[in-house]
Specification:
Order of helices and strands: HHEEEHEEHEEEEEEEE
Largest sheet: 13 strands, antiparallel
Shape: globular
Number of strands: 13
Mean pLDDT: 88
Oligomer: single chain
Radius of gyration: 25 Å
Low-confidence stretches: 3-20, 266-270
């Protein structure tokens, strides 16, 4: 082979090689893996009590078991890259009498570096932690998508119950948020028939805060209407799957007695 041909071969090899995407690495809060904290979360969850840690973990059973983890992801630059990838997704408008917001397709197969890194740490490390502290077996099946709420968007009261859903989670990726902006995650109390009564707790969205709760017959919640015209409520959310909690028989409102027939020739007393 002459030197000219060899030079051309080397050039073609160099230009033909595909550039591999750099894999992002993401670390979640170290505090949740501390044995003392993990044991306290497990004990508090099982006893349906309340626990708060100065590093930003709160467990509460009122009105139903839920947990708030602040500073869930350690890297600010990772959060910025994740937000950019999520906003580049195609969103579908979802709208009916119960809700109005925009949602992406399922993120399980997305190859974007930050999205896939988040998915990996949620599906593996965090799922294992959840299973341990909640003492439930969670399956490999995890639903995950991105939701975008803007001015007047809302999701009314519902319980998230669907066969296989065991733990719901939401990771907020929002700008500085005030109660006047709306978009709170409202938790409802229930009556003896597992019917929603009133809002007893409202969680304000906060950047890099992850909320999870047990999906059950009493896990009624809503996303209140976004009233800010200039802010976007962005989040990654979904469900870890496992054996569903037993649901009581469906409650049916008692039928009201019919008004007895009054003959036309009888004058009404009022």
């Amino acid at each position: 082979m002459n030197s000219k041909r060899k030079h051309l071969d080397i050039q073609s090899q160099g230009t033909g090689k595909k550039k591999e995407k750099r894999e992002e690495e993401v670390r979640i809060s170290d505090v949740i893996s501390e044995e003392v904290v993990k044991n306290r979360v497990r004990e508090t969850w099982s006893r349906r009590e309340r626990y708060s840690h100065e590093a930003g973990i709160e467990v509460d059973a009122n009105p139903f078991p839920h947990c708030i983890i602040k500073d869930f992801i350690q890297s600010q630059s990772f959060l910025e890259g994740l937000q950019k990838e999520l906003l580049d997704l195609n969103f579908r408008q979802k709208s009916n009498d119960l809700y109005k917001f925009k949602q992406s397709a399922d993120l399980k197969k997305r190859k974007d570096s930050h999205i896939s890194a988040l998915r990996k740490v949620l599906f593996e490390q965090f799922r294992s932690w959840l299973s341990e502290v909640m003492q439930v077996e969670l399956e490999n099946t995890v639903d995950i998508s991105c939701a975008k709420y803007e001015y007047t968007d809302v999701l009314l009261c519902h319980d998230d119950e669907l066969e296989g859903r065991r733990i719901a989670f939401i990771l907020y990726l929002v700008p500085p948020w005030d109660r006047s902006d709306g978009g709170t995650l409202d938790l409802y109390s229930t009556d003896e028939h597992c019917q929603p009564q009133q809002i007893v707790k409202s969680l304000l969205p906060s950047l890099n805060t992850l909320v999870f709760f047990e999906v059950s017959p009493v896990s009624f919640h809503q996303v209140s209407e976004v009233t800010s015209e200039g802010k976007r409520r962005l989040s990654v959310s979904g469900w870890f799957h496992g054996r569903s909690l037993e649901r009581p028989p469906r409650y049916m409102e008692p039928t009201q007695p019919r008004t007895p027939h009054i003959p036309r020739d009888v004058r009404s007393p009022y």
